[in-house]
Amino acid sequence: MSEVLVAVDHVQLAAPPGSEPELRSYYTGVLGMTEIPKPPALAARGGCWFEAGFVRIHVGIETDFRPVKKAHPGLRVTGIETYAARLAAHGAPVTWDDRLPGHRRFHTEDPVGNRLEFLQPH
């Protein structure tokens, strides 16, 4: 078999209409990601795309948006204590969870309620 999965290209999250300014502020200012332009054919739909290194998060607009409380991207970080402090300093909730052996991790939410997990192996 020559066809194999090789990487995750991006994670898609949803957000309510009109939330792009809050999302831009959070994903660039708080998480330190860079906004990347959407292709013109997709930009008309609203939403925003962000990246940092190999991590890509696309946030699309959903008219009847409701944040999902369980599903989430798990994002690896270095300097997790400092990163958590950065989020907390910006008013983002930081909930530590020690139930994953071999990892230090916490959960937070973006401005529209999407759950995000940040983790660092020991």
TrEMBL record:
Specify the VOC domain's residue ranges. 7-121
Which InterPro entries does this UniProt record tie to the protein?
Glyas_Bleomycin-R_OHBP_Dase, VOC_core
Family matches, as PANTHER family: FAMILY PROTEIN, PUTATIVE (AFU_ORTHOLOGUE AFUA_3G15060)-RELATED
Official protein name in the record: Glyoxalase
